[in-house]
Specification:
The chain has 936 residues and is mainly β. The protein is globular and about 100 Å long.
C-alpha cells in the first residue's frame, strides 16, 4: 500500500510540482524485517513523511532544466519565471535604486515579501529586512530550486507572505565537473567558469565533502551601442504627427546662465511679498544659443532661451560585473540514525555603473570674466538694473561619467546535527551570515575645494562648446575628481533553529504527523561613511548620517497533517512571532526607535485525490510582517535627485513656492524611516487542481488571492509631485550653495497604504510525444494577473493600480506572462526552443518624463494627451546540446534568436535609461554562446 501511494505521489510531483524531493539529505527508517523507506521534507512543510502527497503549489527546477534555460546567473533564472514580478533588475543600478543588488519577487508584491532560502535556511539579507541579493548564490552549485507559490508565514514567519524560493545546493558529489561558457552579443561579451567536485560516499564511507567554485564576468553595454537607447531626444509618431520627446537636464554643456532679479510693477515700483521681502524672478538662457541661434548638438531647447543636455547619450545602460562564488559542504554519519553537517559559502560581486557626468550649479560674480563675456551682454535692461545674483548650471563632461563600484562580499556558515530518535526526525542548526557592500566612487565626482578653485580662477570656460575645451582644460577638470570609499553597508544574521517531526497516531486512512519547531534570529544593519563622505569633499554634497540598527526575532510553530480519508488530507499550522524593537547604537543613548510587536498566524490546506490522476487542493491562511529596520528607523538621508524633471507643483501662496526652480528641472530627494509604522498583515487563499496522465501529459491550474492590511510602501516621485495637496507634508527644502538659497526637495518616507489586493491564476500544461525519431517534451506555463491594486496613502477610497499600465508607482503589473519550453531529444543531441512573452500595456503619459515638441522644435505639444500602447514583447531562445559519451557535453545556443529590440516606452522611472524599460526587456539583442562541460 505504501509503495503504491509513493508511486502515485511521485508521478504527480514530477509532472507539475505538487511536491518536491528532499530539502536536505533524506533520513531512512525501517522496522524489523521491513524494507527501508525514505522520509522526505517538502519546502512549505516542516514534517518529514514517507510519501509526497500534499496540497502545495510547488514548482521544482532541477539542474537539467536550469541548463536548458540557457541562463548564466541566478538573477536571470529567477527573472524568467512567470510568477516573478516586481524584482530588482541589474539595469536599475544605472541611476536607479538598485545599488548593485538583484532580487526575487513573487506576485508583484516586492522582494521583501518573498522569502529566499539556501538549503532550507535563511540567508543574510542585503538590506535591513529579508531581501536577498541573488548574486550571492552560485548557479553552478544548484541541485534544484523549489518555488512555493503560496504564503508560508505560519511556518517560516515574516517575509513569506508571497511565497518561498528555496535553493538546494548539490550534495554527495563524488566526481569532478568543469564547465566553461562564452556569450557574445553585439558590442559586448560575458564569460563563465565553474568547477564542482566532491569525495566520500556517505552510505559507504560515512562522510562526503562537496565543493564548488564559479566565476562570471560581464562587460558593460553603452547607450550609444543600441539605437533604441542612444539618446534622450526621441523621435516618434502619434496620431499622424511627427514628434520629438526630450528628456534632458538643465545642467548642460555649454552651460546655462540663471540671473535672479527683483521684480517691479507696471509703474516701475519694486514688488514685495507679505513679509516685506523683494519678489524675485529668474531670467534663464544659454549663452551659446543666444550667440549661435540654437542649442549645441548635445542639447535641445528648454523654454524660450535655455538648453537641456542629452545625458542619456553618455550612459552605460547595462553595468559591467564580476562574480566569484565558493561553496563547501560536509556531512558525516555519527551512527545509523545521526548525521552532523556543515556548509559554508563565500561570494564576491562587483558591479561598476557609469551614469551621466556630474551636474553642477556654480555661483558667478557679476564682475567675473565669464559673466562679463557671456552673461551681461544678453541681459535685458530691467534684469540688469535689478540683478541680485548670477549662477550657472554646467555638465562636468571633462570629468567623465560618474563611476561607482559596488563591491559586495557575503559569507555564511551553517552547522548542525540531524537524525532520528524512535522514528521522530529532528534537526538542530546554527547559522551565521555577514554581508558587506562598499560603494566606491572611482571618478566623475568633483572635489569641492579643488573644483571651485579651478572655476574661479577662470581656467575653465563653462560656456564653451565641449569640443572647444583645450586638452589642458579637460585634464585639469579630470584631475579634480574624487576617488575613494564613499559608503559601506554591513548586515549580519545569527540564527538558532530546531524542528522535530514524526507520526503521532495511526488512523484507518494513514498516519497523523506532527511537526514543531522554533527559531531565534538577531539581525543587524549598519551604514558608515568613507573619509571623503564625512569630510564633505564632493561638490555640494552633505555628509550622510551613520547608523547601526539591530533587532531580535523569535518564533515557534506547530504543524499537523491528518489523513481524513485515504484520498483526503488536511494540514494545519500555527505560528507565534515576536519581532523585537529596533535599537540604534550610534544614536544617543543606544536609542530604542520603536516598540516590539507580536502576532499569531495560521494556515489550513486541503488535498483531495478522487482518482490516481487528479489532485484537488486548496489552502487559506494569514500572514504577519514588520517593516524593515530602515523603513522604521533610518534617519533622513539624501537619496539623489528625481528620475525626471518636474514643473513646480506648488500653488501661488504656498510657503515653499519661492523654493521652486523656474524651469522644469530635477529636484533633490530624501528618504527617512517612520517609527509609527504598523505591522503588515495578510489573508490569503488558493484553490486549484492538477491532473497527470500516464504518458507525460499534465495540466495544473491554481487561483490565488492575497489581501493585505497596512502594507508598507514608499510613495513614488510622481505620486508626490502630482498630488501636492495630499502629500504637502512630504515637501521640504535643501540649501543650494550655487544659488545661495533653499531649493524645494521631497521626502520619500515609508507609510502604511491601508489595503492592497492581488489575485491571479497560475497554470501549466506539459506534453510528451514519443516520436519514431526522438522524444519531444513541451511545457507551457504562465501567470494571469486578475487584480493588483492598493489604497492610496492618505485616501479612504482611492485605489491605485498598475495592472496592464504604467501606474502611479511608475511600474507595470503585467496581465499575462507566459513561457513555452520545447525540448527534443534524439540520440546524443538535444534541441531546446524556449519562448518568453509578456503582455502589452498602456504607457505613461508623455509629459511625465518628457517635454514633447514637434519634430522641427518649432513648438511644444501637450504631452499629457499622448499615451501610447506598448506592444507584447517576446523573445525566442535556441539551444543545441551534444553528449559526447558519458562524461562530456558541448552546447551551442542563441539567445533572442529573432534579435527583438525592447519595445519603445515613454516611461523612464527605472533608472537613467530612456526609450526602453530595463526592468522588462533585454537590451543585448541576439546573443551567441558556446559551452563545454566535462565530468571525471
Amino acid at each position: 500500500m505504501l509503495n503504491s501511494k509513493v508511486s502515485k505521489a511521485v508521478r504527480l510531483a514530477i509532472a507539475f510540482g505538487a511536491a518536491s524531493t528532499a530539502a536536505f539529505s533524506a533520513n531512512t527508517f525501517a522496522a524489523e524485517g521491513e524494507e527501508k523507506v525514505e522520509r522526505i521534507e517538502v519546502t512549505g512543510s516542516a514534517i518529514k513523511r514517507t510519501d509526497l502527497e500534499g496540497a502545495l503549489p510547488l514548482d521544482v527546477i532541477d539542474a537539467s532544466a536550469i541548463a536548458k534555460s540557457g541562463v548564466t546567473s541566478v538573477p536571470d533564472l529567477i527573472a524568467n519565471l512567470p510568477a516573478m514580478q516586481g524584482f530588482t533588475a541589474a539595469g536599475e543600478s544605472v541611476g536607479g535604486g538598485g545599488g548593485g543588488v538583484q532580487t526575487a519577487s513573487l506576485r508583484n508584491l516586492g522582494s521583501e515579501y518573498t522569502l529566499v532560502l539556501l538549503n532550507g535556511r535563511r540567508m543574510v539579507s542585503s538590506d535591513s529586512g529579508g531581501t536577498i541579493d541573488l548574486n550571492s548564490i552560485p548557479l553552478a552549485a544548484i541541485k534544484r530550486v523549489e518555488i512555493l507559490k503560496d504564503g508560508a508565514s505560519a511556518l517560516y514567519g515574516s517575509d513569506a507572505i508571497a511565497g518561498v524560493v528555496n535553493f538546494i545546493l548539490k550534495d554527495d558529489v563524488q566526481s569532478t565537473t568543469i564547465s566553461a561558457r562564452y556569450d557574445k552579443p553585439k558590442d559586448t561579451s560575458s564569460s563563465n567558469f565553474s568547477i564542482t567536485t566532491g569525495f566520500g560516499d556517505l552510505s559507504v564511507d560515512g562522510f562526503n565533502i562537496t565543493a564548488a567554485y564559479s566565476r562570471d564576468e560581464q562587460d558593460n553595454l553603452r547607450s550609444v551601442d543600441r539605437d533604441f537607447a542612444k539618446t534622450g531626444f526621441i523621435s516618434f509618431e502619434h496620431s499622424g504627427q511627427d514628434l520629438l520627446a526630450v528628456a534632458g537636464s538643465s545642467s548642460a554643456i555649454p552651460g546655462n546662465a540663471y540671473v535672479s532679479y527683483n521684480t517691479r510693477d507696471e509703474d516701475g515700483n519694486l514688488l514685495f511679498d507679505e513679509e516685506g521681502n523683494n519678489k524675485r524672478a529668474t531670467y534663464s538662457f544659454n549663452p551659446y544659443k543666444m550667440a549661435n541661434g540654437s542649442c549645441h548638438a548635445t542639447s535641445a531647447p528648454s523654454g524660450a532661451r535655455a538648453c537641456q543636455f542629452d545625458y542619456t547619450s553618455t550612459l552605460e545602460i547595462q553595468p559591467e560585473s564580476e562574480r566569484d562564488n565558493i561553496f563547501v559542504q560536509g556531512v558525516a554519519t555519527v551512527n545509523d540514525t545521526t548525521e552532523v553537517y556543515a556548509n559554508a559559502s563565500w561570494s564576491r560581486f562587483e558591479m561598476i555603473t557609469r551614469i551621466a557626468p556630474y551636474p553642477t550649479g556654480i555661483p558667478l560674480s557679476a564682475d567675473s570674466a565669464l559673466a562679463e563675456k557671456y552673461v551681461m551682454p544678453f541681459l535685458p535692461d530691467n534684469v540688469k538694473e535689478d540683478m541680485v545674483s548670477i549662477s550657472a548650471r554646467w555638465r562636468v563632461l571633462p570629468g567623465g561619467n560618474r563611476t561607482d563600484e559596488w563591491s559586495t562580499t557575503t559569507n555564511q556558515i551553517t552547522a548542525g546535527i540531524r537524525g532520528e530518535i524512535s522514528e521522530w526526525s529532528y534537526d538542530l542548526a546554527v547559522t551565521r551570515g555577514d554581508s558587506e557592500r562598499e560603494q566606491n566612487r572611482l571618478t566623475g565626482y568633483p572635489k569641492q575645494d579643488e573644483f571651485l578653485a579651478l572655476l574661479n580662477s577662470g581656467a575653465i570656460d563653462i560656456f564653451a562648446a565641449p569640443e572647444d575645451l583645450t586638452d589642458e582644460e579637460n585634464a585639469a577638470v579630470a584631475a579634480s575628481m574624487f576617488n575613494g570609499l564613499w559608503e559601506k553597508t554591513e548586515t549580519s544574521i545569527t540564527t538558532i533553529e530546531g524542528k522535530l517531526s514524526g507520526a503521532i497516531a495511526d488512523l484507518d486512512a494513514g498516519s497523523v504527523y506532527l511537526g514543531v519547531g522554533f527559531d531565534y534570529r538577531t539581525s543587524e544593519y549598519a551604514r558608515s561613511n568613507g573619509e571623503g563622505n564625512n569630510n564633505q569633499v564632493v561638490l555640494y554634497e552633505s555628509v550622510s548620517p551613520e547608523y547601526d540598527l539591530e533587532r531580535d526575532n523569535y518564533g515557534a510553530f506547530a504543524e499537523v497533517i491528518v489523513p481524513v480519508m485515504e484520498n483526503l488530507e488536511l494540514t494545519g499550522s500555527i505560528r507565534y512571532d515576536n519581532i523585537g524593537e529596533i535599537t540604534d547604537s550610534l544614536r544617543e543613548g543606544n536609542k530604542v526607535v520603536n516598540d516590539s510587536e507580536n502576532d499569531t498566524t495560521y494556515k489550513l490546506s486541503l488535498s483531495y485525490r478522487p482518482t490516481d490522476e487528479l489532485l484537488l487542493r486548496a489552502s487559506m491562511g494569514t500572514g504577519f510582517k514588520m517593516a524593515t529596520m530602515r523603513q522604521i528607523a533610518e534617519p533622513r538621508v539624501e537619496f539623489g535627485v528625481t528620475s525626471s524633471p518636474y514643473d513646480c507643483p506648488l500653488a501661488s501662496g504656498h510657503p515653499l513656492k519661492s523654493a521652486c526652480h523656474s524651469d522644469k528641472l530635477q529636484y533633490d530627494v530624501y528618504r527617512e524611516g517612520n517609527a509609527n509604522l504598523k505591522p503588515e498583515t495578510s489573508e490569503q487563499y488558493t484553490f486549484g487542481f492538477v491532473w497527470a496522465g500516464d504518458t507525460g501529459t499534465s495540466v495544473s491550474v491554481d487561483y490565488w488571492n492575497i489581501d493585505m492590511e497596512n502594507e508598507v510602501q514608499r510613495l513614488t516621485q510622481n505620486q508626490i509631485f502630482f498630488n501636492p495637496e495630499t502629500y504637502n507634508h512630504l515637501f521640504t527644502t535643501k540649501y543650494d550653495p550655487s544659488l545661495e538659497k533653499d531649493v524645494l526637495a521631497i521626502v520619500q518616507a515609508a507609510d502604511n497604504v491601508g489595503k492592497s489586493t492581488t489575485t491571479g491564476i497560475d497554470w501549466s500544461i506539459n506534453l510528451t510525444n514519443e516520436l519514431s525519431f526522438g522524444t519531444l517534451k513541451t511545457g507551457i506555463m504562465g501567470t494571469y494577473l486578475i487584480e493588483s491594486e492598493s489604497l492610496r496613502v492618505g485616501e479612504d477610497n482611492v485605489w491605485d493600480s498598475s495592472l496592464g499600465k504604467v501606474g502611479t508607482d511608475e511600474a507595470v503589473a503585467f496581465r499575462n506572462i507566459i513561457n513555452i519550453n520545447n525540448s527534443f531529444t534524439h540520440g546524443d543531441f538535444t534541441h531546446d526552443l524556449n519562448i518568453k512573452a509578456r503582455s502589452g500595456y498602456t504607457d505613461a503619459a508623455a509629459d511625465v518624463n518628457f517635454t514633447v515638441y514637434r519634430s522641427d522644435l518649432s513648438e511644444t505639444v501637450d504631452g499629457s494627451l499622448i499615451q501610447k500602447h506598448v506592444p507584447v514583447y517576446f523573445t525566442v531562445d535556441y539551444r543545441l546540446s551534444y553528449a559526447y559519451g558519458d562524461n562530456a557535453n558541448v552546447t551551442f545556443g542563441i539567445k533572442n534568436l529573432l534579435d527583438r529590440e525592447p519595445p519603445f516606452t515613454l516611461n523612464a522611472a527605472a533608472g537613467h535609461q530612456v526609450g526602453y524599460d530595463p526592468r522588462y526587456a533585454d537590451p543585448y539583442g541576439r546573443t551567441f554562446y558556446i559551452q563545454a562541460d566535462y565530468t571525471f
